Amino acid sequence: MNFRIWFSQGLAWLAMLIVGIGVGSITGQEVQNSDVEESVRQFSAELLKAFNSGELDQVVAMFTENGELIDEQGTVHSGRAEIKMLLEGFFERFPGSTMAVESESVRQAGSVIIDDGVRVITDANGVSSILRYTAVLVKTEVGWKIASLRDFPEESVPTSGELLEPLSWLIGEWVNEGSDGKVQISYRWSDDKNFILGDFVFFRDGQESGKSSQRIAWDPLLAKPRSWLFDSDGGFAEATWTEIESGWVIKSSAVMPDGQTGSATLQMSPESDSRFVLSGRDRVVGNELEEDYEIVVVKRPQVGSK
User: Fold this and answer.
1) Cα dist. 19→27, 50, 179, 223 in Å?
2) FRET label pair with 298: which of 74, 181, 247, 262, CA 20 to 30 Å apart?
3) Domains in the chain and their CATH numbers?
């Protein structure tokens, strides 16, 4: 069982609660009674000290006798005996783990204190897990105790690479060859897997005539891919990509080496894993309207393949 799974079953929640109720997290606007505020601060400091020193009995004693833990999957762990067993298992498997937390709201509701926030726990190998939590504290004859603690999974934000996955079919070596020349195209993931990188080499009469490089990224503001293209002669272009049923529509604007501007609407339509059609329309360079075009691009055979 890995750290993330163990965490989700309710073993790391307590580590974060220690700081989550934490020192400095309560404001006078949220809890008007300064005595209550100070009591909760002291409770938090004691809990943190006990946890960091490995005094599990002291940590468990800071729950009510029938205190409960509800993990992110809805499993209820009731009573101090179960809580201690979970803690022992956690420390045995993940010694050296560290804690961080952001307490977002601490408020008094009648006779209880409610703390909501986000916590992160990182094991000795640098693997982290994130959860949201809600903790309920009650006042007893011997001070504040934890009556209930519930975890909620933190919604993970997709990486740029995950959002670019619909374009992953581009990865590979491609070629277009016609009567007026040839273009070799190579697409690959960047080392961090957050961008798609493209290289274009142009040939005319069997001789290399130019190169271009492209970077495709996810634009979180537009919620769609965006690309930048740089030519070896100094020109450059920028484009936004919109997915349609038959492929992609690419709205491009460019600056030529001589300062003229251009724009075009391109459409990239995959026909198979090894073939796509690229068409261009509404092509304007300077004040001139250029002809539409349509070309077929195919996967280049791998070296040594038959």
Assistant:
1) 15, 12, 70, 36
2) 262
3) 3-153 (3.10.450.50), 160-299 (2.40.128.20)
